[in-house]
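Example record

The entry below shows one chain as it appears in the dataset: sequence first, then structure tokens.
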Amino acid sequence: MNQTAVSAIASKEKATKQLSMTLESLEDGKAEDIITIDLEGKSSIGDYMVVASGRSHRHVASIADKLSKQLREAGFGRARIEGNETNDWVLVDAGSVIVHIFRPEVREFYNIEKMWLAARPEDTTEQ
């Protein structure tokens, strides 16, 4: 096995551990309707996307803050957080795992999981 393959396997293992910890944090924080999307073959922005809901502005903020702290303490580095001014939709970018935390009505409006879970159209170009 060459060095590139070994590195890719190690990277995927790290992403899987990060995902597991993320899901555990979201569940402990009482996040609702948690959906995991595997981004392999769909995007290079990360390995996984997680979409979850919080019941209120304060709940969304609490979930995001707790997740960020736990990721940092576990050695995954400092996650970038966007949207914590209003806490309607908070994005926690932890590198391999991208987490979107919404208030329910905002999540319903944007419906991003529908876009990311949609099947990719087959390549119809002739060869």
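Notes for this example: Residues 17-117 form a domain with the Beta Polymerase; domain 2 fold (CATH 3.30.460.10). The helical segments are 3-28, 57-73, 104-110, 112-117.
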